[in-house]
Amino acid sequence: MPDKPKIVIIGGGSGLPVIIKPLVKQKIDLTAIVTVADDGGSSGLLRNYINIVPPGDIRNILVAMSHVDPAITQVMQYRFNAKDDFFAKHAVGNLIIAAMTEMHGNIFDAVQYLAKFMRVRGRIYPVSNEPLILHAEFKDGEVIAGESEITHAHKVIDHVWVTGDEPGEAPKAAPEVVQAILDADMIVYGPGSLFTSILPNVVVPEVNEALRLTQAKQVYISNIMMQKGETDAYTDAQHLLALNAHIGSPVIDYVIANNAVVPEDFVDYQKWDEISHQVKLDEAAVKVQGAVEVPGDFLQLRDAGAFHDGEKIMLELLKILENS
């Protein structure tokens, strides 16, 4: 293993910070590549108001990788309550990122400035400097645009792709994103929503090509729970199949998969209404795709939900690096 291995983690949503928090404490060179296709919640409102890259996922990762007084991160994460009229539902950090984007002229430079201010350990790269639109074709042939619309459709997805904000505009990756992938010792996908957090990064053409060219070991962290309207009835091998298919080549070397049982009576399915049943493991089907399944108890039960144990995942990633 290199003295300071270069790890690139790809995704978005709330899953990435769980893994990032323990990773940034290790002797590694960490880069997070973050989706810019979100169009829901505070991020979606700001995107519609001032046409900026949605800042929510970026904010969460800035906080996860920062090394500042906790009071600063609390302010970044503070969300105005519903009685605050115009500011209702907005996170303070989203407004700060929006302001910095206007000041610097683009999201990429804004994030690099904020990363210095928040003493980020590693690098945070929005996958593109422009907001992207996620499109999905479902198994029944229907096509829907927009990440939130796709999620709420609750239908079986066949494949996804992204375009620029303007009709016919091709998505373009930030050059630093491509270089980070090519230089990496390890690429980590997830954890997070497969079709709406991970794949929107993967299908950007320059990113897609870099993922097929890089010599890095590639690891997929399989979700613990199936996601309604995205991965209903998916095994870990079916998650892997969709990921490899969108990359265009079976590049994934390892699948980290939780095999600890999630108690049915623990999860609050009303609070976590986007999930359904636990993902089952299919080691034989993973092997057919040229990957090694790494099963283990990676489960953390909290807040009436099932989450990855970031510390255990971090140790497994380092073990893979040591043995490669």
Model description:
The chain is 39% helix and 21% strand. The chain is an alpha/beta fold and 324 residues long. It has a single domain, classed as CofD-like domains (Rossmann fold, 3-Layer(aba) Sandwich). Strands 3-2-1-7-8-10-12 form a seven-stranded parallel β-sheet, sandwiched between helices. A three-stranded antiparallel β-sheet has the order 5-4-6, covered by helices on one side. Helix 1 (15-23) links the parallel strand 1 (6-11) and strand 2 (29-34). Helix 5 (92-104) crosses helix 6 (107-117). The longest helix is centred in the last third of the chain and has 14 residues, at 310-323. The radius of gyration is 19 Å and the shape is globular. Residues 40-44 have low confidence and may be disordered.
List keywords for this structure.
Rossmann fold; alpha/beta; LPPG:FO 2-phospho-L-lactate transferase activity; CofD-like_dom_sf; three-stranded antiparallel sheet; 324 residues; Putative gluconeogenesis factor; cytoplasm; 13 helices; CofD; 14 strands
